[in-house]
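Example with several molecule types.
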Amino acid sequence: MYIRIRPDSETPIYTQLIYQIKKGILRKELLPGEGLPSVRSLAGDIGINMHTVNKAYKLLVEEGVLTQQKKGFIVNSDTKLEIQPPHLLLYKERLEALVIDTQIFGMSEEMVEQMKQEIEATLKKDDEK
Amino acid sequence: MYIRIRPDSETPIYTQLIYQIKKGILRKELLPGEGLPSVRSLAGDIGINMHTVNKAYKLLVEEGVLTQQKKGFIVNSDTKLEIQPPHLLLYKERLEALVIDTQIFGMSEEMVEQMKQEIEATLKKDDEK
DNA sequence: TTTTTGTTCTATTTGACATATAACAAAATT
DNA sequence: AATTTTGTTATATGTCAAATAGAACAAAAA
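Resulting structure tokens for the full complex:
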């Protein structure tokens, strides 16, 4: 699985990593129950620190996306993964900010819908594209 | 116009202020051409520092939401305010992150749509509600 | 037995955020 | 004309998150 990190981005590395992994799961490049690389190996591969990878993994566990076994992290196999209240609150805040900017800049509903569909296309298996 | 700041929020104060002002414009509590309170008076009113207000104002000018006269900041009167490329990029990144979380947590399209409409209701003039 | 795993701890560096204070020129007010 | 208000600029300080570095540990896997 490909992971690309932009060190100079405003977005923290651990946040970038979190979304790269979520992307991998949605694209089925990471399957339920599949193990993730160890914090040390992944850190070494993409050239970042071990603790940064560990932070991303632990936050993903906290969200329920990953689970933790005695040894190592794996993709959660639960069919129904529901968002927890504190994360739902953050989700709503992000949605509100996006809606506000959409209206402030007078972006049409079609324009947003098109962008959304372009994004969704990148989140499908290569097979289905 | 009401402005409420949560000092303990993860969101920086200047960012909170930016969205409060955008909200005020959408709700028509701030009209095109209308002047905003001076950085000192607003800072004093809501109990934050002058430079924090100034930072929010300047960023809003940079986005085209406000303009600056010889003296003071005013709401931009341009009918067509179009988003600039760098801001559009950030917008797309935020939209992507939201779409990813929507799918990862298996949220239905109806659920998102409902949340969106609840938000949009808060962005209308009180008259229209 | 050796290696690998995540965990924990201490330490350091960097930058953003926010505040505080002061001084300035230009504009508005009195 | 004098005073006040405006945004601007500069310096300084404190706090915190992010990221790195290195070391040590017990438990599990090889």
